[in-house]
Amino acid sequence: MPTPLLTQSTPASGEPPAPEAARPTHLREANCRALLRLLRKSSPCSKADLVRSSGLSAPTVAAAIAQLAECGLVEPIGEGKSSGGRPPDLLQFNASHAYVAGADIGGTYLRMMLADLHGQTVATWEARLGAGRKTPSAVVSLLREGLKAMAESANAVGRVRHITVGAPGITDVRNGVVKAAPNLQDWNDVPLQSLLESGLGIDATVENDVNLAAVGERARGIAHDARDFVFIAMGTGVGAGIYVEGSLHHGATWSAGEIGYLPVAGMPRETMRLEQTGQLERVIGGAGIEDAWSEALQREGIIEGPLPKLRASQIFDLAGEPTADSHQLAMEIVGTTARILADAIGILGLLYDPKLVVLGGGVGSHGVLRATTEIFLQENELAQPLLRTSSLGKQAQLFGAISLSLAAIEAGLLC
């Protein structure tokens, strides 16, 4: 928030408060922050460029640049082109002054990314979460291993300032607690933020993984600058990240977007439990699609060969190949999945009226699923958002994590 130029003081006489000039240190800090933002957007540039774009005086800009250079945030890069007079000395924002990290804890893999202060990726790392590697302590150990490996490969040891980690479950962002993550092991009321900060030695933010994907798509994906949209992830689990009027919606108890617990038409009503996956997720998550495929094959007497071994995305691939064996059977699976998904999108449409719904995840981003789901949505006369496929793929969560980490350290960049 910009520092106010005037503050209020209340005199002892009880007279109306008189405006008081903000302290010079506050003004200098505000000027430094404003110029730092300009440098990040427009470098390389000269001091004269900054004077013109900021509206500040030349001495003020020179003093602020000197302070930013002392902090290691600005560096000279030589002379620019002359427009008739003395060539200007150019400056650029030092994006390698510090680094931030992001991580996505999936049901099967842990994936990590390291980025500079421009948000540019400098290293990635991943590990499979096999048996015994899904507990909170095991995951934190893997995160420490991955962070060390990335920092060493990018020559960033000692300069990683923050990490944002996405968890596949209901997450209390304010307190950094994962309330429940059914696809992991022993993840109930886990104080993940404190575990990360003590285990990694840097500041940390914890967020729901699908919310991070929504942040990523809005920051640099297909939902760029969209104010009202929903990101739906379909993979091992099913969830949604919801933007309302430009802000990520968490809800009163952090469960907004947990659409995996939605009921499925025609199935018995069931009570929602934190430690269990929900009905919608069990039906149209990856495992549910594969179970439905297995049952369909058994009805056809197909129990051997490559078909029973197909994963959900491969089943959808088969549905997109009209000449392939069992194409019609695969299309039936896609049709059932799309109908149920369209019903869920219809509910979200009535509740939030988003302009856009982005489908992501290993299953949700498949083109055949999107096209078939659109057919069902077009039958409605309302709740018809635009339906698009994620442009960031499995990187959406990581880009969202990097975006939040950059925002978290911005206030502390000045020395």
Describe the structure.
The two termini are 18 Å apart. With 415 residues, the chain is of the alpha+beta class. The chain has three domains: 6-78, Arc Repressor Mutant, subunit A; 97-216 and 397-410, ATPase, nucleotide binding domain (Nucleotidyltransferase, domain 5); 223-391, ATPase, nucleotide binding domain (Nucleotidyltransferase, domain 5, 2-Layer Sandwich). Helix 6 (209-220) packs across helix 13 (396-410). The strands form five sheets. A five-stranded mixed beta sheet has the order 8-7-6-9-13, with helices on both faces. The chain is elongated and about 80 Å long. A hairpin with a 3-residue loop joins strand 6 and strand 7. It has helices spanning 24-42, 47-54, 58-70, 136-153, 192-200, 209-220, 279-284, 286-299, 312-319, 327-352, 361-364, 367-377, 396-410, and strands spanning 6-9, 18-21, 45-46, 74-79, 89-93, 99-105, 109-116, 121-128, 160-167, 170-172, 177-180, 188-190, 203-208, 229-234, 238-244, 247-248, 356-360, 386-389. The protein contains 13 helices and 18 strands.
